[in-house]
Design brief:
It is built from five helices and no strands. The longest helix has 22 residues. Helices cover 59% and strands 0% of the residues.
């Protein structure tokens, strides 16, 4: 069961990553190359063999102008929402 959830997670990531690339007018490999990510890593993501690291997820989300949470399937809203720091009390 755990293996199934892992594969579903990888496939969800790939689907969202690929879709955001399309929306931005690019493909996964050229975008990855621009960020210094190997085509082998992209192939492993596509084949649900190995997930991107946290650092890589942040690079991808920044480049695609979406949230890491969207790429990970934690939200269905790809729009990056930033809190208003002027009203924040820390």
């Amino acid at each position: 069961m755990l293996l199934h959830k892992k594969v579903v997670f990888y496939l969800l990531f790939w689907e969202r990553f690929y879709r955001m690339c399309e929306i931005r007018g690019t493909k996964p490999n050229p975008l990855a190359k621009e960020l210094g990510i190997s085509s082998g890593a992209v192939t492993r993501w596509k084949n649900a063999e190995d997930p991107p690291s946290g650092k890589t997820l942040m690079l991808l989300a920044d480049k695609l102008d979406c949230s890491v949470d969207y790429l990970l399937g934690r939200t269905d809203d790809p729009v990056l929402h930033q809190s208003d720091s002027s009203s924040s009390s820390v």
